[in-house]
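2024-03-11 09:14:02 DEBUG pipeline.ingest accepted 1 chain
2024-03-11 09:14:02 DEBUG pipeline.ingest length=285
2024-03-11 09:14:03 DEBUG pipeline.predict start
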Amino acid sequence: MAEGNLPVIDYSTYTEGQQIGPFTIVAIMIKQKDYIVYIDDKINIQYLDAPDFTRPANFSRIYQAVNEVEMMADLIFRKDKFNKKLQQYKENIAQALVEVLLNDKDIDMARRHLRLVGIKIKAEGFERIRMAYLLTAFTVTAFVIASLVTVWIFKDFFVTILHSEPVYNLLMAALTGGIGGFISCFIRFRNYRGNIFAGTRMHMFDGFFRIFYGLVAGFIASLAVKANVVGGFLGNSAVSLIFVAAVAGASEFFVPSLVAKMDSSFINEANGNKGKDNNDKDNKD
């Protein structure tokens, strides 16, 4: 938001589309002979008044509050280029200045108005990032499901390309892990908050990587089962691998603990081999 004054002029003659310095008037909120409040072509609130105009006693306090709410709207909507929605909110925010300029006694009403607009901005900001997160996760999952169905229908073809049915089963398990990732995403969506100032793109990445994590988790989990690191009682059947992969994809903690367990297993095996080599050396001596 910007303020200022120009040489003595009748602001009531200004019209939308008129150029004022570097800005063009897009929407006029109020105009009188001594002042004008408008939205410019950069979607900023602008205020101009005559040098001899006496501002209302509480104008500076409301002006500061308007600046704060306008900044919040910019942080939430400008980053994602929601210009139409941003302009609507800017016009609502500027209405607080109009109320004070027309009637200085309405400062409490202007504050309530700004508070309500701020609440609406935050609510819509949260809803936008939540939907961006879920829709991205759903889109990626739809692609994963399509891939899973394709791999299943053309099993012989993929087994031939991969030269191994066990590798094919790992591929199926990894894709199932992506579906498990979406299940986790959907379950926690109710409590998903995100950061309204990060923009929708960041939360789209969040939704994408939630499914990608499920794919990786499914692959690692099924690989661990085949290596008998975990779930030895399940066997190495395709059904067992797919089940474990789905559970791993839906779990936030399964893979980190599984990787730690695999590391521990490999370290113990390495230590065992080292001890065996030392014993063989001692026996030779």
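2024-03-11 09:14:41 DEBUG pipeline.report The beta strands are 2-4, 19-20, 23-31, 35-40, 45-49.
2024-03-11 09:14:41 DEBUG pipeline.predict end
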